[in-house]
Amino acid sequence: MSVLGKPMTVRGRGPAHRTLRLAPGGLSLRLRPRPLAVTLLLALLAAGSGALALTRDGLVPPAEVLGALLGAGSEQAAFVVLELRLPRVALGLVVGAGLGAAGSLFQQLSRNPLGSPDIVGFNSGAAKGALLVLLHGNPAYVAVGAAGGGLATALVVQLLARRGSFRGNRIILAGIAVGSLLASVNAYLLTRAALDHAQSAQLWLIGSLGATERHQILPALLALAALLLLALPLVRRLDLLEMGDEAAGGLGVDAGRTRVMVLLIAVGLSAVAVSVAGPIVFVALCAPQLARRLSRGTGTGLLPAAAMGALLLSASDLVAVTLPTAGSLPVGVVTGALGGVYLWRGCWGAGGDARGRAGPCRPLARGAPHPLN
After folding, report:
1. How far is CA 284 from the centre of its chain?
2. pTM, two decimal places
């Protein structure tokens, strides 16, 4: 077999995992059976949640939905499925996967289960950049504004957290402080905007997939795929940093360069999600830990977290559009409720149990196993 024209071999490393080597002496990826199976299962469940969203309320029967997807349905079914529902479902899967992957990278980078982009302020920074474009510029450049705001926030947080040696808890505290300041700035911008612009921007700040359009899907999907491909070779180096910078350096890992590259990729993933759906909360926080519990793995768990994020957001959006309320809810309302339940369970149920397991409210010590392993 070969990948991109390069020879590829699969070499066994005992029953725990296999190593997928892309080239002799080159990059390699470790494949563990259980995390791989969990990733596939979560992806199937996410696809099933999307299929339910396409057939919700019985307006279009499942047979007509399938016909519309295959190009053989009626014009009415094709319009409802392909124009109204499929873009929202597809973008929800892409955004959820991006948030799950970003949360996984942030949590491993900070060595803290609270290290997700919505907690440490990166989503607020991306939202500020996008909000400035929405209120005062061309909406076509929202993605650029989100990326610029996210990167600027990441730079400020890194500068605040880099007093002395690198510590994940400093990133969390600095990110929370910067995020609070940015939330205040965002609120101020809303008060100074025109009423109609402020109302649409406020809905966007909650996090919503309701305004999804078909032309947004392909750019978001390509950006997600590119960033995940860039992140995969860095996962092994990031895992080695758990041993400490000196030990990882002895194995050929440049700690500073690895952290910067991982941070840039994670901010990019967050910016992609924020630019098309707003700063949806708690998916990036919950998805990596839930996926890690299912896969019983250690380390970053990038792909299981991405699949779990897609499932969580797809299922949350399905709940948002089927609840008997006056109109469909923004998906951010549902994920916010989900996150509140998750944090309550983690802080009060698993945060200090008799077995001494750390929950989401307890930071990780260097070299300690992840709290949900």
Report:
1. 5
2. 0.81
